[in-house]
UniProtKB/TrEMBL annotation:
The keyword Transferase is annotated on this UniProt entry: no
Lineage of origin: Bacteria, Bacillati, Actinomycetota, Actinomycetes, Propionibacteriales
Limits of the Sialidase domain: 82-359
Signal peptide start-end: 1-26
Protein keywords: Glycosidase, Hydrolase, Signal
Family: Belongs to the glycosyl hydrolase 33 family.
Cross-referenced Pfam families: BNR_2, NPCBM_assoc
Catalytic activity: Hydrolysis of alpha-(2->3)-, alpha-(2->6)-, alpha-(2->8)- glycosidic linkages of terminal sialic acid residues in oligosaccharides, glycoproteins, glycolipids, colominic acid and synthetic substrates
Organism of derivation: Kribbella shirazensis
Name of the protein this chain belongs to: exo-alpha-sialidase
Alpha-galactosidase NEW3 domain location: 398-469
Length: 669
């Protein structure tokens, strides 16, 4: 429900007053859907029937009708706004769609937004959950649960008993909202009905809740086919829009948007409570709404497909791009099957199983200008249940060959024969292809794949993937593996160990000339400390006049940190690690900035990264010639940030470092 950045464009039809709510008559595939095995069509287009559309929901009725719902919005903003809930129906597995219909609308300031569908497989009733708002949205929603309070974000749903043709409406805020909570809304997409076990038949709809200034997840559930509803305990904080899925063993798994990784928890009581909330390292996320479902909800426990899950989200930590579908063959522990739907812009997405056995994916495309429906089957996934574990080398050097260890584990019912290689390599890199011995179900083997890194490669971390190819399909690593490469020419180096007591620094500004023109490169610092001061600079290159233009590699409360700050106090590069390096052991910290990426690397492991590049030349380029600084050059210091301890006679503030710097090396690209 996060409001996206605004899109400024002239909607001529809106200005002319000619818009009407209707069908997108020329449903064209999105430009990026070039894969012929992925059939795509737009169900809604900005400016046709509504200025904007957002927030997809998708389900299939007991009669086999595919239901696609979403917001029709006057602007791209969330509630409060005069938003309408609309819906389209397909009776032929998503091939054609009936005209768009309005499920709920009222005059301003009333609005309804963020739909989520649940189908009761016993009664056939279709539930369409959403938030109802007048004066406030999620962020400003008032405490209390008065169903008539215009400042409370209300919990509403519409229901249909005639396969989605007509709808009635109901408000359940007093039943499910704790008065101590603020904003609360149904997490868009789809809820579930539990299939087996003691809670069979229970309807479960996930909610996002604002409480004590933080975001939480909770499950609204009904054991009487929607006559009454209850709310489970909060899961969080740090969760947001979330989904639940029934696992083979009867537990529910919660999967929530969060940056940089999705958050996962488990429930053994049908969503009444959640335990074990943790970040899933296999599912990176930019904090965007995704989807998860059983591959085959009718699969009998113990059979192969009973443990299969499908998942969709934006595979990025920083942007709403790179929409992927992933498959797990072990109830979400690993995700070896991965296909890209859209490498460019994509936002919210939701999945469903279609009556013909294929899958439907409804998603936001083309910079929020389209709601797109894509259909795919098992052949498009082209997967094999064989998760890979990659061990990155510690000795990757530019101009040399190293080996990458890849472990293959078969989860397939039959024997597998295949090869392993490395993909998504940077330009100029090359990898060998290695035959993997035949694997039976449950067997694992490990192979070494040769990797050649071209000379001239800068010190930095580079993402690669491993892929296992067989006649039955292929598997790959769910997220890229970072290979740390050491390269570049040494521009300046100091190998004399020095101790710092927190009252002094070493001024090496006379060496600025050697590094000032570096647009890219790396700083490698070997150090040891036990100090956990708020900020302690290992290296600083700072404008001595403005004191606000700098490149600083430091430890903040003992945790490696790097910043590049501009004259307007913005931070194009700012990486804060969660790793504590103030443990009295020797460490090697690298700040690398090249190829459009800045990385913090501690002892060979990437501990932070951002898709921005800044280095020494940027400090110098922003430093004007000044009468007090006629050269226009910045300071360069070790053990402190001189710009924050001037005059030199008063070295007393928090930027001074305590510990040992064994050596420092600066390399170019």
């Amino acid at each position: 429900m996060t409001t996206p950045r605004p899109i400024n464009r002239c909607l001529a039809a809106l200005a002319a007053g000619t818009l009407s709510l209707g069908v997108v008559t020329a449903a064209q595939p999105p430009a990026s859907a070039a894969d012929p095995a992925l059939a795509s069509q737009d169900l809604a287009a900005a400016g046709v029937g509504s200025p904007y559309y957002r927030i997809p929901a998708l389900a299939v009725s007991t009669k086999g009708t595919v239901l696609a719902s979403y917001d029709a919005r006057p602007t791209l903003g969330d509630l409060p706004s005069n938003i309408r809930i609309v819906l389209r129906r397909s009776t032929d597995n998503g091939k054609t769609w009936q005209e768009q219909q309005i499920v709920r609308q009222d005059p301003a300031p009333q609005g309804y937004g963020d739909p989520s569908l649940i189908v009761d497989r016993v009664t056939g009733r279709i539930f369409l959950f959403y938030a109802a708002g007048q004066n406030q949205g999620y962020g400003g929603g008032a405490t209390g649960n008065d169903p008539d309070d215009p400042d409370v974000l209300q919990a509403d749903y519409s229901y249909s008993d005639d396969d989605g043709l007509t709808w009635k409406h109901r408000r359940i805020t007093p039943q499910i909202k704790d008065p101590a909570w603020g904003g609360m809304f149904a997490a868009s997409g789809a809820g579930i009905q539990i299939k087996r076990g003691p809670y069979a038949g229970r309807l479960v709809q996930q909610y996002s809740v604002r409480y004590q200034g933080q975001n939480w997840a909770a499950s609204a559930y009904s054991d009487d086919h929607g006559d009454t509803w209850q709310m489970g305990e909060l899961a969080g904080p740090g969760t947001d829009e979330n989904k639940s899925v029934e696992l083979e063993d009867g537990r529910l798994m919660l999967n929530s948007r969060a940056r940089p990784n999705r958050l996962v928890a488990y429930s053994s009581d049908g969503g009444e409570s959640w335990q074990g909330l943790h970040a899933d390292p296999n599912l990176i996320d930019p904090a965007d709404n995704g989807s998860i479902l059983r591959y085959n909800e009718n699969a009998v426990p113990g059979t192969e497909q009973a443990s299969w899950l499908l998942f969709s989200n934006n595979e990025s930590t920083s942007s709403r791009t790179n929409l992927v579908v992933k498959q797990s063959c072990d109830n979400g522990r690993t995700w070896p099957i991965r296909k890209v739907v859209e490498p460019g812009f994509a936002a919210y997405s939701t999945l469903t199983r279609l009556p013909d056995g294929a899958f439907g994916l409804l998603w936001e495309s083309q910079d929020y200008r389209r709601i797109t429906f894509s259909k795919f089957d098992r052949d498009w996934l082209d997967g094999v249940c064989a998760p890979l574990t990659v061990t990155a080398p510690r000795d990757a050097v530019a101009g040399g060959t190293t080996t990458v260890s890849v472990k293959v584990t078969s989860q397939s019912a039959g024997d597998l024969d295949g090869t392993v290689t490395l993909t998504d390599l940077p330009a100029g890199w090359s990898a060998g292809t290695v035959q993997v011995p035949r694997l039976s179900a449950g067997q694992s083997t490990e192979v070494s794949v040769p990797l050649t890194v071209p000379s001239g490669t800068s010190t930095n971390a580079y993402p690669i993937r491993a892929v296992y190819r067989t006649d039955h399909g292929q598997s790959t690593t769910p997220i890229p593996t970072q290979i740390v490469v050491r390269g570049g020419a040494t521009v300046w180096e100091d190998t004399t160990p020095r101790s710092y007591d927190g009252t002094e620094l070493r001024d090496v500004s006379d060496q600025v000339g050697a590094v000032k023109d570096l647009a890219a490169g790396a700083v490698t610092i070997k150090f040891r400390t036990t100090a956990t001061s708020g900020a302690a600079a290992l290296l600083s290159s700072a404008d001595p006049i403005s004191q606000v233009r700098d490149l600083v590699v430091s430890l903040n409360s003992g945790k490696p940190y790097v910043e590049f700050r501009t004259g307007s106090s913005t931070y194009p590069v700012r990486i804060q690690s969660s790793v504590n390096a103030a443990d009295g052991n020797d460490h090697e910290l690298i700040f690398a900035s090249s190829n459009g990426i800045s990385s913090l690397i501690l002892d060979g492991e990437v501990i932070g990264q951002t898709a921005t590049q800044r280095f020494f030349r940027d400090v110098d380029a922003m430093t004007p010639v000044h009468t007090l600084n006629p050269t226009g050059l910045p300071n360069l210091t070790l053990g402190g940030n001189r710009a924050y301890v001037t005059p030199p006679a008063a070295l007393t503030n928090r930027w001074l470092y305590t510990g040992t710097i064994h050596s420092i090396r600066i390399t170019g690209s």
